[in-house]
């Protein structure tokens, strides 16, 4: 039985990866190296500071903690300029209809995101009111694949992990769900998300019957 659905944000509800890419690449260029689309793939589902560490590793740059915090802050300011221009048009296809189906079935909706910008993004997309619980990067101390973010969501809703299904586009996120003893739907390609109970390319046409696993 499903009582709640917990959604990752970036890559599941909205494609923010393209804005992360622009902002990280501009930082890399300032530091004197390039950062490719393929490099950007490695940052999906990864926290802001870990993303910076991966970027610096690619550029073979070593910096002290204080400088790293300043650079992460700078990247985020740049990223926010794009985020603040987002509109509900950028909600990924089928997401809103799926939320409406869940509401009509009495299934609760929670957010389980690593992003510290999640509230801003939901506001831009005018989706905040769909969520019965919101857990984001400002509420957790352990990154996915640790299940903390999803367990907190379930707890806020008052359900056990077995009553929840997680929707994730990143491998670490699928692992986090399974580590939390939750079922998981992968949004994306089976090659990357093969551990999930079900993998679909997106929400268009997704039915409740498919979630019966
Ligand atoms: C999501 C994205 C990552 C991003 C992380 C932190 O997990 O997939 O690419 O690094 O959130 O985002 P933030 O908005 O806090 O910098
Ligand atoms: Mg994601």
From TrEMBL:
CDD domains: HAD_BPGM. The gene is pgmB. The record marks 113, 144 as: Important for catalytic activity and assists the phosphoryl transfer reaction to Asp8 by balancing charge and orienting the reacting groups. Binds 2 magnesium ions per subunit. PANTHER family: 6-PHOSPHOGLUCONATE PHOSPHATASE (PTHR46193), HEXITOL PHOSPHATASE B (PTHR46193:SF18). Its EC number is 5.4.2.6. Keywords: Carbohydrate metabolism, Isomerase, Magnesium, Metal-binding, Phosphoprotein. NCBIfam families: bPGM, HAD-SF-IA-v3, PGMB-YQAB-SF. Substrate binds at residues 8-10, 24, 43-48, 51, 75, 113-117, 144. Pfam families: Hydrolase. Mg(2+) binds at residues 8, 10, 168-169. It catalyses: beta-D-glucose 1-phosphate = beta-D-glucose 6-phosphate. InterPro entries: B-phosphoglucomutase_hydrolase, Beta-PGM, Beta-PGM-like, HAD-like_sf, HAD-SF_hydro_IA, HAD_sf, PGP-like_dom2. GO terms for molecular function: beta-phosphoglucomutase activity; magnesium ion binding. Belongs to the HAD-like hydrolase superfamily. CbbY/CbbZ/Gph/YieH family. This is Beta-phosphoglucomutase.
């Amino acid at each position: 039985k499903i009582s709640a659905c917990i959604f990752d944000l970036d890559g599941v509800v909205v494609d923010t990866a393209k804005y992360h890419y622009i902002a990280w690449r501009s930082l890399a260029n300032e530091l004197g190296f390039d950062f490719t689309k393929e490099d950007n793939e490695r940052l999906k589902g990864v926290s802001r500071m870990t993303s910076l560490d991966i970027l610096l590793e690619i550029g073979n740059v070593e910096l002290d903690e204080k400088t790293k915090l300043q650079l992460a802050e700078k990247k985020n300011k740049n990223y926010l300029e794009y985020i603040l221009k987002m509109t509900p048009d950028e909600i990924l296809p089928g997401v809103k209809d799926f939320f409406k189906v869940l509401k009509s079935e009495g299934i609760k909706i929670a957010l389980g995101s690593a992003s510290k910008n999640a509230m801003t993004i939901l506001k831009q997309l005018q989706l905040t009111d769909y969520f019965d619980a919101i857990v984001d990067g400002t509420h957790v101390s352990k990154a996915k694949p640790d299940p903390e973010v999803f367990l907190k969501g379930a707890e806020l809703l008052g359900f056990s992990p077995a009553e929840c299904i997680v929707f994730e586009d990143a491998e670490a996120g699928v692992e986090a769900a399974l580590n939390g003893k939750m079922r998981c739907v992968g949004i994306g390609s089976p090659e990357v998300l093969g551990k999930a109970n079900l993998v679909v390319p997106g929400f268009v046409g997704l039915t409740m019957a498919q979630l019966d696993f």
